[in-house]
Every structure is written in C-alpha cells, then in structure tokens.
Amino acid sequence: MVNRQWVLAARPEGPVKHSDFRLIETPLRPLADGEFRIRTRYLGVAAVMRGYMLNAEKFERPLAIGDVMHGRGVGEVVESRNPAWAVGDIVQGKLGWQDYAIADGSDYFLMFKVRQRRVPISTALGVLGLTGFTSYLGLVDVGAVKAGDHVLVSGAAGGVGSNVGQIARNLGASAVGIAGSAEKCRLLTENLGYRAAIDYRLGPIDMRLAELMPEGIDVFFDNVGGEILDAGLAQLRRHARVVLCGAISQYIDGIERPRPLNNAFAIFKKMARMEAFFIYEMSEHFERAEAQMAEWITEGKLIYQEDILDGLEQMPEALIRLFEGRNLGKQLVHVS
Ligand SMILES: NC(=O)c1ccc[n+]([C@@H]2O[C@H](COP(=O)([O-])OP(=O)(O)OC[C@H]3O[C@@H](n4cnc5c(N)ncnc54)[C@H](OP(=O)(O)O)[C@@H]3O)[C@@H](O)[C@H]2O)c1
Questions:
Q1: What values do phi and psi take at 127, rounded to 5?
Q2: Atom 30 (ligand 1): residue with closest C-alpha?
C-alpha cells in the first residue's frame, strides 16, 4: 500500500506555480499506540496555504522543502489504535495533501467527527466547516449585522462570500456582492441571496457602489483588501462595521510592499469600527454557527456552492485557481 503525497518543492516567488509542488509515493507505515489512519475523501484549499509555503503563518507548523503540504480534509478512519476514533468514523481535520493521513487525536490536528446528515460530507469543508463558520461568525459576531442593514461583500462568489449574502438576507439585511466576472455576478443575484452585484474587473467600482448603495454601507465584509477595501470605506454609513476577513489581493506582494489605506479617515469620520478576526480563535462558537447553518440548509434558505476538481493530482491546480479567481464557491478536490 502506497501513499501519494504532495510535498513542497520550492517556496513560491510571486504567484503559486505547479513547479512549487512535487507528487511522491511513500509506503504506509504501521500505526503506533494512540494513532489512527484516515483515508482522505476530500481536501479543501485556502489562500492562506501560500503563506504556509513561505512559513509566513506562525499558527501552522513550519514546512521544510520536501514536507507534505498542510491542508484540511474530510476522510474515513480505516485503521485505529485509539479507542476514541473508530474504524468507519468520518472525520475532518488537518489531513495534509495526501491519500492517507495519520493522526493521534491531539489538539494539533483540530479533528472533529462529522455528524451524519442528509448533506454530502464535502460540506464539512465548506458551508458546515470552517469556511461556513467564517461567513457566519464574521458577519454576525464581528459585523454585528441586524435586520435592515445594508451589507457589502467582496470576494462574494468564493467559498466564504457565497454564504455571506444569504446569511445577510436570512437575517433581514440586504447585500451587494463584488466579484470578478459577469457569470459570477449573475450567480450572486440569481442564486446566492445578493440584491445586486458589481464586476470589479470592469474598472474602478466607486461610482457603481455609490449608485447601488446610495444610503451607504452598514457592514462591509471584506475578503479582498487593497483598492476594493478603500472603495468600500469611502461609502460607509455612521457607525458602520468593517469586517476584515481576508485580503487576497495583497497576499502575493503586499507583504514586501504594503499598500497604504487611502480612506482610513472615513473610519474616524463615520465613527465606524474596523476589526479583523481569525476563525481558529472562535472555536467556542462553532457549534452555534453549525446549528444555524444546518437549519437554514434543511429549510432551503441556504444553498451551498462547491467547486470540486477530481483527483489528488489536482491539488496544486485547485490552489492556483483561487488566486486566479477561477473558482465558483468553495474550492475542493475529491480524492477518493
Ligand atoms: N479570517 C479568517 O479566519 C479567514 C478564514 C477563511 C478565509 N479567510 C479569507 O477569506 C477570503 C476568502 O477565502 P476563501 O477560502 O473563501 O477563498 P475564495 O473566495 O473561494 O477564493 C478567492 C477568491 O478571491 C478572488 N480574488 C483573487 N485574487 C483577487 C484580487 N487580486 N482582487 C480581488 N479578488 C481576488 C477571486 O474571485 P474573483 O473572481 O471575484 O476575483 C477568488 O475566487 C480570503 O482572503 C481568505 O484568506 C479568512
């Protein structure tokens, strides 16, 4: 029995490339006491993985060249020497980019059993996993959204953003989404709960934003940073909340050449609050987020958008798609 594993071949310079990764095969090793083996079913990708490749994310174990790429996945326990984790359990946690992972139930793996529901297990990586919790807790807890609010969401057709418009709508707010193509914008308004959408690739969005949100923005859920963040700040309403969820437009060269925030004065002028958050620090709220998201799915009030590639060999491609805006919804890879 061999394990196919994607290892780090080179640290990315500029955008992530296929040659930054290498696929190897290693024999499966026997388990030690306390360990269990998981066969990967699905893996997710996230923009933060470029940071893992550079060892720029201090909350993750450093990666040396030749190490298996970090990543969360969902899989089935196929062998166990740990009484708390039984063969047949479906679990989600840090599996890494590989066919088989070994875990020991310690905190590092952030491993949970996946409750069996009438939804595919892939949702444990998307709408009913950290991605969905980021959408829900970012908007509700950090953004303090309330009925009647006007909400702006950037990266609106991605994994996180594809839920945020629907959550806003379900709570009586109305959302405008920003995304990078006509097809994505159509999806936002037809399926994903957004009242209106703006294609930022057509040019600066300031005018369009002022037209679509003349009353201003109560909550700005920003996944993108840079120019789009500035444009949103210019349109804030009194006591607005700016939720800094991500800044994907800055991840490649914003670290060496940080882009100044031009409209920071607007935060003061509008007595607004701007707050970043990190979902791993909000674990005491996951159950509440999951219960609400699952209820909405059952009631038909939340549809989830997944973009699934087939085969472990697609992992680098899946990650590259995020930075090129080629994914629609949560980017996953079906492994087995
Ligand atoms: N705070 C937290 O704890 C937390 C947790 C999870 C994720 N995040 C962050 O949330 C954001 C969304 O994550 P996700 O996993 O759901 O990814 P995603 O939105 O599914 O994928 C990234 C999307 O970002 C857009 N994008 C890429 N480069 C861009 C650029 N230069 N300018 C504007 N848009 C760009 C692309 O869509 P377009 O076609 O629309 O450009 C792409 O589809 C990321 O910034 C991520 O780092 C934060």
A1: -60, -30
A2: 249
Cβ pair 295, 287 in contact under 8 A: no
Nearest CA to ligand 1 atom 15: 46
- For 252, residues 6+ apart whose C-beta sits below 8 A from its C-beta are 14, 15, 50, 323
Count of CB atoms situated within 10 Å of the CB of 183: 12
Q: Crossing angle of helices 161-170/286-298, nearest 10°?
A: 80
For residue 130, give the 3-state DSSP assignment. helix
Ligand 1 centroid – CA 223 distance (Å): 5
Q: What is the pLDDT of residue 49?
A: 97
Strands 217-222 and 236-244: parallel
Q: Across 49-173, where does the E strand assignment appear?
A: 72-80, 90-94, 100-103, 112-113, 150-153
Query: Domains of the chain by range and CATH?
Result: 2-122+305-334 (3.90.180.10), 130-280 (3.40.50.720)
User: Distances in Å between the alpha carbon of 73 and those of 38, 130, 156?
Assistant: 10, 11, 23
For residue 13, name the pLDDT band (cuts at 50, 70, 90).
very high
Q: Residue 152 Cα, ligand 1 centroid: separation in angstroms? A: 15
CA triple 35-132-315, angle to 5 deg: 60
Record the pTM: 0.96
pLDDT band at 255 (very low <50, low <70, confident <90, very high): confident
- Which of 43, 154, 160 for mutating ligand 1's site (highest number of atoms within 8 Å of CB)? 160
Structure tokens at 50: 């470029």
Q: Using a 6 Å CB cutoff, which residues line ligand 1?
A: 46-48, 131, 134, 155, 157-161, 179-181, 184, 223-224, 245-249, 277-279, 322-323, 325, 327, 331
Give the residue-averaged pLDDT of 31-35. 97
Interval 223-237 mean pLDDT? 97
Work out the number of other CB atoms within 10 angstroms of the CB of residue 196. 15
Distance CA 317, CA 298 (A): 32
